[in-house]
Amino acid sequence: MFARGACVNVAAPMVRYSKLAFRELVRHWGADLVYTPMIVADSFVRSQQAQVYEFSTKRSDRPLVVQFAANNAADAEAAAALVAPHADGVDLNCGCPQAWAVRDGCGCALLYQPELLSDMIRRVTQASGLPCSVKVRLHQDLRRSVDLLRTVQAAGARMVTVHGRVLGQSSATPPDLKAMALLREHATVPFVANGDAWSAEDVALIARETGAHGVMAARGLLRNPAMFAGHERTPIPCMVEYTRLALRLGTPWLTLRQHLAFMSEGSERCDRRALLACSSAAGVLDWFEARGVDMKQQTMFR
Ligand SMILES: Cc1cc2nc3c(=O)[nH]c(=O)nc-3n(C[C@H](O)[C@H](O)[C@H](O)COP(=O)(O)O)c2cc1C
After folding, report:
1. Which pTM value belongs to this model?
2. Mean of the per-residue pLDDT values of the chain
3. Is 214 close to ligand 1, i.e. is its CB under 6 Å away?
4. What is the mean pLDDT of residues 266-286?
5. Which domains does the chain carry?
6. Is the pLDDT of residue 224 over 80?
7. Is the model's pLDDT at 63 over the cut of 60?
8. Is 22 in the pocket of ligand 1 (CB under 6 A)?
9. Model confidence at 300, in pLDDT bands (50, 70, 90)?
């Protein structure tokens, strides 16, 4: 995928949101590589209930990267082995800034433990037979980021995603494109840049400014899942398609409604209040139909 030379569109891991129906949707609208939400490896390997709840997939859900939060190599490798038959890659989250994750020694805590991270990469690769990647945030001191990049590459990481913000920086802070460009120069594996890709133009700009092989988007895709395909706002057919997918794949109504809330923020020709007043997926489909959406063609005809 990275070998073909064009910038790879990557749909980010998003807790609660990058679930099966949303993954299907963004693939239809231009995402090349798609992540699951972060899954906590510890509970995943110990609880069958967690396995069922946290990870559902289907044959067409590829190429798929499954992301884990882990604080030890044994959990990471056991979790990776469980999903290996259904995935194309396993990612280790080294960028989650949440206090519970850092306290537990996963997420951003791993930025400060290169040896443990290296061990995890080696054992995940061996146990799963899949490429292992990491998603990191920047260090304040960029030299530490370069060292970390070299370390993970030496341990066998096959792709690196850099979220261009440091721990503690809010998502309102612009990502540091220059820092990502510098790191990209030290990358010997596919390098994915992440931060503030809200449109196809942003994707092109980030790729150009950083030299990245791929660009990952999170909030931009929540707001407009068709963004990689060049749409400036969420097309109505995209919302209809998501509602249908959610209905078919058993997405809980509250999750579907939250996605529609995000999508309709950036959509034109959509009476958001009325849409969000619907009380079920079937009600949403009726609502669209009553407003003149051609449900066969999925286009607006008036
Ligand atoms: C709702 C939400 C959930 C997220 N969940 C995860 C996650 O599970 N794993 C992860 O590595 N990052 C997660 N992130 C961070 C994003 O993947 C991404 O790094 C960050 O939002 C910056 O990208 P953006 O500017 O395109 O939003 C999440 C972000 C959001 C908004």
Report:
1. 0.96
2. 95
3. no
4. 88
5. 8-229 (3.20.20.70), 236-289 (no CATH)
6. yes
7. yes
8. no
9. very low
Write down the pLDDT at residue 135. Answer: 98
**pLDDT over 90 at 5, yes or no:** no
How far is Cα 187 from Cα 162, in angstroms, rounded to an integer? 11
Q: Give the separation between CA 57 and CA 19, rounded to whole angstroms.
A: 9
Structure tokens at 204: 């092109």
Write the CA distances from 188 to 65, 150, 160, 173, 210, integer angstroms: 20, 9, 10, 28, 15
What pairs with residue 138 in β-bridges?
Answer: 166
Cα separation, 195 vs 172, whole angstroms: 10
Listed in sequence order, the residues at least 6 apart from 291 whose beta carbon sits closer than 8 Å to its beta carbon are: 271
Closest CA to ligand 1's atom 21:
218
Cα–Cα dist 20/226, whole Å: 16
Using most ligand atoms within 8 A of CB, pick from 100, 102, 163 the residue to mutate for ligand 1: 163
Average pLDDT over residues 103-117: 97
